[in-house]
Design a protein that fits this description.
The protein contains 10 helices and 2 strands, in the order E-E-H-H-H-H-H-H-H-H-H-H. It has 196 residues and is mainly alpha-helical. It has a two-stranded antiparallel ribbon with strand order 1-2. It starts with 6 loop residues before the first strand and ends in a 10-residue tail after the last helix.
Length: 196
């Protein structure tokens, strides 16, 4: 099989490699992030309790993924997961649902923007997996940014118990999203063609 064509472009400080399909991947990621970015707005605007929002999110997700897997032959890949990997798959799913429950409840108790800022700590929990001196500096800088973001709201958190609970829930959501990422990363798939 011929190797994929590589295009080398000049980038600041060196060269950057682009592969065919990178534009498609970027577009898909952009659409996914745009959809993800509306989750808080729809959650709060619906006026529904958090449990209902998460239940229907899971239901619609199952229906969409069932259609996608059926259209692309994904069932063979799913059924190709080794039996010993299933606890990781289930744990990942549980962590994802707990993450959504905590995050959507945080949206109701604080503000979408504030909860999202705290929620975006999750990449730093993943970085803790392989810590280096360089990463410690960036983590410290990120926490400083978080503290500076929270400082103006300290008065609200002291007088409004709901706000404080919302901050805690956003923090818990970030931990469970990191756990989702780590458990999913640990799952190995059967046939090589499933690794896309």
């Amino acid at each position: 099989m011929p190797s994929p064509r590589k295009v080398v472009r000049k980038a600041v400080g060196g060269t950057m490699e682009t592969r065919p399909g990178l534009t498609r991947a970027t577009a898909m990621l952009s659409v996914g992030m745009a959809l993800s970015g509306t989750a808080g707005l729809f959650s709060v605007s619906s006026g529904q309790p958090t449990f209902n929002v998460v239940f229907f999110r899971c239901l619609f997700g199952v229906l969409a993924l069932t259609g996608w897997a059926s259209a692309r032959g994904g069932w063979k890949c799913l059924l190709g997961i080794e039996r010993k990997q299933w606890p990781l798959v289930l744990m990942s799913g549980i962590c994802l649902v707990v993450n959504w429950l905590a995050l959507f409840e945080a949206f109701h108790r604080t503000s979408i923007g504030f909860a999202t800022i705290i929620y975006h700590l999750q990449p730093f929990w993943i970085v803790l997996e392989a810590l280096s001196r360089h990463k410690v500096g960036w983590i410290c800088l990120a926490f400083l940014g978080l503290v500076l973001t929270i400082l103006p709201k300290l008065g609200d958190m002291q007088t409004d118990r709901n706000w404080l609970i919302g901050v805690g829930l956003a923090f818990v959501a970030s931990l469970f999203y990191a756990a989702t990422t780590l458990t999913t990363r640990a799952v190995t798939y059967g046939p090589p063609r499933c690794k896309r």
